[in-house]
Amino acid sequence: MITSQDRASAEWIRSSYSDGSGGQCVEFSRDSLPRTVPVRDSKNAGGDVLELPAVAWSAFTSAVRRQGLSG
């Protein structure tokens, strides 16, 4: 589980599929790999964090790439 201290020190990466205007931004961190991938809404960085199993995150991102989803 990612703690508030972990969240503050984590390196968050903004999705390349997020739009450039500051909205619709998803961020994730590789800091908890290989077990989980924390995901958050960049507009609410102090809000809830979803922790996904790494295999689920991998399947999700692969599907997005395959289908060319952008929003």
TrEMBL record:
Q: A Pfam family this protein belongs to?
A: DUF397
Q: Which InterPro entries does the entry link to?
A: DUF397
Instruction: Show where the DUF397 domain sits.
Output: 10-65
| Protein's name in the database | DUF397 domain-containing protein
> What is the protein's species of origin?
Streptomyces bohaiensis
